Amino acid sequence: MASFVQRGKKIVAIGRNYAAHAKELNNATPKEPFFFLKPTSSYLATGGAMEIPTGVVAHHEVELGLIIGKRGRDISQADAESHVAGYTLAVDMTARNLQDKVKKQGLPWSAAKGFDTFTPIGSFIPKTSVPEPHDLRLSLKINGITKQDGTTADMIFRIPRLIEHISSIMTLEEGDLILTGTPSGVGPVVAGDKVECVLADGLGKELDTLDFTA
Amino acid sequence: MASFVQRGKKIVAIGRNYAAHAKELNNATPKEPFFFLKPTSSYLATGGAMEIPTGVVAHHEVELGLIIGKRGRDISQADAESHVAGYTLAVDMTARNLQDKVKKQGLPWSAAKGFDTFTPIGSFIPKTSVPEPHDLRLSLKINGITKQDGTTADMIFRIPRLIEHISSIMTLEEGDLILTGTPSGVGPVVAGDKVECVLADGLGKELDTLDFTA
Ligand SMILES: [Mg+2]
Ligand SMILES: [Mg+2]
Ligand SMILES: [Mg+2]
After folding, report:
1. Contact (CB<8Å) B41/A115
2. So what's the ipTM on this one?
3. Nearest Cβ partner of B41 from A15, A106, A171?
4. DSSP of chain A, one letter per residue?
5. Which of B199, B15, B21 is nearest to B120 (CA)?
6. Fewest Cβ atoms closer than 10 Å to its Cβ: which of A57, A212, B176, B206?
7. What CATH number should be reported for the domain holding residue A81?
8. Strand arrangement of the beta sheet that strand A187-189 belongs to
9. Which residue in A has a C-alpha nearest to residue B110's C-alpha?
10. Which residues in chain A have their CB less than 8 angstroms from residue B41's CB?
11. Residues of B in contact with A173 (CB under 8 A)
């Protein structure tokens, strides 16, 4: 599944999976998981240049990504881990001003989340390198200043629950990416910014890095 | 592009593109096009059986589909036709009760639109067989009774405008499907129903049929 960027057909992104992030945007903590889709045309490989369209306020959301390795529908929590091939470090870029507008109007989030280059991603990390995905450190700096620094221990809905929920609605296929939500600290990325993200294990060992410019 | 079901990575579906349909759901007529994404895991080939999940009110929306044949971003209206490989007859099935709920909450439409089997589709129709895509008849019957019967002449935003709009946000790729909106007459499909759709040209000649059971 190292080729998930080429092979994968969908990106399923969970909203509000960290209580501190839900709160910072004045949203209620969800009672069950919810998700939106991003197109795979929004991928940006590490080292790349993000495009921020004119008039868009683009916010960073650093997230742990799960790469699906085995197709499945109605996957139980007990079986969920067997469907994960590995992980990646990702940023769910969001046109926050457009999202705020469509939320008020009851319209879809797809454009606000779907611009080209709005899903920067790192390397494929095989699951054998990640013994405990619920004890990882996610951090993001802009121009050397830390903006997000959270732990996957704070997820409201843990990985098996997310896989159970999504697959109760749609088949998960090889190469699909699940974004698991962002910790607090989201904010704007503007032209000229250098963004650097790190995924580390519970002991502080780096598992992957991801950087891009705007 | 006859293999769009296997090759395509996204389904981009336009909302409220027929005034009579916007009105029947008490929605305003949009001032510019908007869209949502459906996963390709929701495809159902003609002749198939739709799954309606427990508690879901599933509405039919018969639509003209455009199959992209050439990758592009920021496609002009003048160039739009050169990116279309052909057409298909499709139904954008919608969990209307879930959609109504998330609209009120400002949440994404992705689950309401994304269940497995919620995008029944017909054959690939090469564009050489369709000289005027804005003069096609779209109809849908349930158990022999006509529920939808509209013409693509009534689209609020025509095909070049839709391609221009979507590609101003995201790259369109070979095999992607664009659903162009539904005429009025949407309503529920329930277990045991037989659904039959026809796409015909302006003279009434059948271009394709699509049927499924629920
Ligand atoms: Mg996010
Ligand atoms: Mg997709
Ligand atoms: Mg529709």
Report:
1. no
2. 0.96
3. A171
4. -TTHHHH---EEEE-S-BHHHHHHTT-PPPSS--EEEE-GGGEEETT-B----TT--EEE-EEEEEEE-S-BSS--TTTGGGGEEEEEEEE--EEHHHHHHHHHHT--SHHHHHSTT-EEE---EEGGG-S-TTS-EEEEEETTEEEEEEEGGGBSS-HHHHHHHHHTTS-B-TT-EEE----S--EEE-TT-EEEEEEE-TTS-EEEEEEEE-
5. B199
6. B206
7. 3.90.850.10
8. A94-95, A58-60, A187-189
9. A36
10. 9-10, 170-173
11. 41
| Domains contained in chain A, number | 1
Rounded to whole angstroms, the Cα distance separating B109 from B36 reads: 7
- CB-CB under 8 Å, B104 with A108: no
* B52-57 contacts at long range (C-beta below 8 A, 24 or more positions apart): B52/B189, B52/B190, B52/B191, B52/B214, B53/A169, B53/B95, B53/B115, B55/B97, B56/B95, B56/B97, B56/B98, B56/B115, B57/B95, B57/B96, B57/B97, B57/B188
Contact between A113 and A13 under an 8 Å Cβ cutoff? The reply is yes
pLDDT tens for residues B126-179? 999 999 999 999 999 999 999 999 999 999 999 999 999 999 999 999 999 999
Distance from the B15 Cα atom to the nearest Cα atom in chain A, whole angstroms: 9
Residue A56 domain boundaries: 4-213
Compute the mean pLDDT over every residue in chain A, rounded to the nearest whole number. Answer: 96
> By the CB < 8 Å criterion, does B106 face chain A?
yes
Question: With bands split at pLDDT 50, 70 and 90, how would you rate the model's confidence at B2?
Answer: confident
Contact between A115 and B169 using a beta-carbon 8 Å cutoff? yes
Cβ atoms of A119 and A90 closer than 8 Å: yes
CB contact under 8 Å between A42 and B170, yes or no, is yes
Helix (H, G, I), strand (E, B) or coil at B197: strand
Distance between CA atoms of residues A83 and A79, nearest Å: 7
Taking a C-beta distance cutoff of 8 angstroms, is the pair B175, B85 a contact? no
- Decide: B51 and B189 in contact? Cβ < 8 Å: no
